[in-house]
Amino acid sequence: MAPAFPARDSILLLPPPPQPPSFQSLRATYETSLKSVLRSVNSPSRTSTLDIALPLPFLYGASRTPRSVLYRQTQDAVAGLYKLIVVAAAQEGVDINPDVDGDGEGQGGVDVRILLVAEPRRTGPRDQGGWFGEVGVVVELETLARSGRRWEVVWGVDGEDGETILRRFVEKRRELSRFAVRRVGGGIVQVASTGEAEAPRVGLGERRKHYASVVGGTFDHIHIGHKLLLTMTAFMVDELDTDQQTERSVTIGITNDALLANKKYAELLQSWDARRVAVERFLIGIMDYRPTSPASLLSESPSDLHVQHINQPGPNGHAWNVTLVAPTHAAQPAGDITLKLVEIGDPFGPTITEPGVSVLVISAETRSGGAAVNQKRREKGWADMEVLEVDVLDSGEVEDDGRHKDASGRDMRASFEGKLSSTEIRKERATRGRSKV
To answer: What would be the CATH architecture of the domain defined by 209-393?
Structure first.
């Protein structure tokens, strides 16, 4: 008998995105599927986790290509899909900003995560351009299927591409665990007549690789905008070349409690520790594909992680370092990645205390911050960081189908913006609390 719904942990296997991946073409391709699955897994009494596997053909065979070359094309696809998820959730009345802590009972909503899959549009011989390991933000379909995650339901999408992805995944997964397979309707996948778009391959020798990326923020009540920012920061950590021995890390500067005291609805601000745990859980959820149970399924760090708590005097002296230890393969160097979750008390954080970090990911709203960081680094005699932006997810294009209200009757634009603002999330929590008095 199939497991009862809603499922606690599910994965939706999307077909590859349309080309070019405009918001409207993504909407035509994925909206029906997203709405169906969000509606099915949503529950008012417990939080469900929904992994959404997004196959990106231009990543297949590109493990040796510098991530800075692949960044813009990947960012456009992830930002467009996350924006569409916000729209679909608003129309279906699904809370996609649950505070995930403990076992999630009594909270409701769906914790959504996009997983980046290096997979060709059509199957064929394995590309000889290298492969992605079990630790990192890009994963191959076979590695994803063989990972230690405990999905209760695997969702496939009707259509040739969707069926191909589902069949290949299930073939590799079936021997590991029991799960139900469900199919949902798909949309129209359009590919430009010139063929599958590829990531640029020219001038690769001029682009440096990065092994230490950094981002900063408050990360209060982690939402879709945060997830986009964190995903692209983790994306910028390149794969190691054969026999290369270099530390790989993702540093996240998380604003300390003192700097947030004057925020609106300050009484509902999460503590630094709560925000740190939420960031850690999300990153592990999109980076841990080892054949053991990933830490994102547990309330505390398991024994297969190396965890170090640092508490030293001075700037950025308080941090948690969490290392994902990659399995060792003869053809692939050990690709461990350390998540460095640092408490910061100023706008610069580790960017001006750690000379080894080489790439900073910011939102377009904080563009001036990147220039200020590099000015400080020059004063120290350090190399400039490469500064990359993620899109600001705005409400443009969300009303073009004539739907001006969400499932609860709220203005669609206001509903959209409310899901991308920590202040609005705290406001909603405050209103909900007062209504229960």
So the answer is: 3-Layer(aba) Sandwich (3.40)
- pLDDT of 315 reads 86
- Burial class of residue 243, CB neighbours in 10 A (0-12, 13-18, 19+): exposed
Question: How many angstroms separate the CA atoms of 118 and 236, rounded?
Answer: 15
Predicted pLDDT at 194: 44
* pLDDT greater than 80 at residue 322: yes
Burial of residue 13, with CB atoms counted within 10 A of its CB: 0-12 exposed, 13-18 middle, 19 or more buried? buried
Closest CA to 251 of 281, 283, 225: 283
For residue 259, what pLDDT is reported?
81
pLDDT tens figures, 400-425: 555 566 656 666 566 656 656 666 66
- What is the number of other CB atoms lying within 10 angstroms of the CB of residue 263? 16
Cβ–Cβ under 8 Å, residues 216 and 253: yes
Mean pLDDT throughout 229-252?
A: 92
- Amino acid in the structure at residue 106: G
Mean pLDDT of the region 159-167: 94
Stated pTM of the model = 0.88
Domain ranges of the chain: 1-206, 209-393, 399-437
What pLDDT is attached to residue 427? 66
User: In this structure, what is the dihedral angle of CA atoms 388, 289, 334, 311, given to the nearest 10 degrees?
Assistant: 70
Strand order from edge to edge, sheet including 153-157: 138-140, 110-118, 48-55, 9-13, 153-157, 180-184
The band of 193, judged by pLDDT with boundaries at 50, 70 and 90, is very low
Q: Are 358 and 269 in contact (CB under 8 A)?
A: no
Instruction: Tell me the residue type at 120.
Output: P
Residue-wise pLDDT tens digits, 373-404: 999 999 999 999 999 999 987 766 555 555 56
